[in-house]
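lol ok so funny story. i was supposed to be doing the assay writeup but got distracted and ended up predicting the structure for this chain instead. priorities right. anyway since i did it might as well share w the group, maybe its usefull for someone
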Amino acid sequence: MEKRIHSAYRGEIYGISFFTHFANNYTNKSLIALWHSLIQVERLTADLLEISLNKNNIEYDRNDSLMNAKGIKDASAWINLPWSELVDTLINWVEPYERQYRLWVIETTQEFETFQLIADHETAIFQCWKSEQIGESGIPKLQAFIAKYTDKL
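and the output, tada:
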């Protein structure tokens, strides 16, 4: 359980770095609200996971240099893809994590709310990209997650 929560937390640090790189460097500036919404989801999730990490006395590093560097490296590799190819790539990238985190919810016998948060955050991101894939804004999917979890801080 502790390893899973810590792993998910490190994924949030990665995600913040990844989406921040896109927000700062993606050529189509009309998508800045999307990138900022994704960053907000990742930061909110990290903040909420820190509550669980602290409660369980699990050490973590909000400035994890390895995860920050990995996020920038991966974003740099994909930043010049055409939009539709980028969206398809991100769907394929997120989908296995979304499935994995849903399984964690089913398997957990403790920290259910923490694992539900982890799964819900990944589902929101996955649904966001699925919406973008069909030409709809993914921001409402992200905002629904934010609205659901903001009061949990």
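Residues 2-152 form a domain with the Ferritin fold (CATH 1.20.1260). The helical segments are 2-25, 32-55, 65-78, 83-107, 112-133, 139-149.
back to the writeup now i swear
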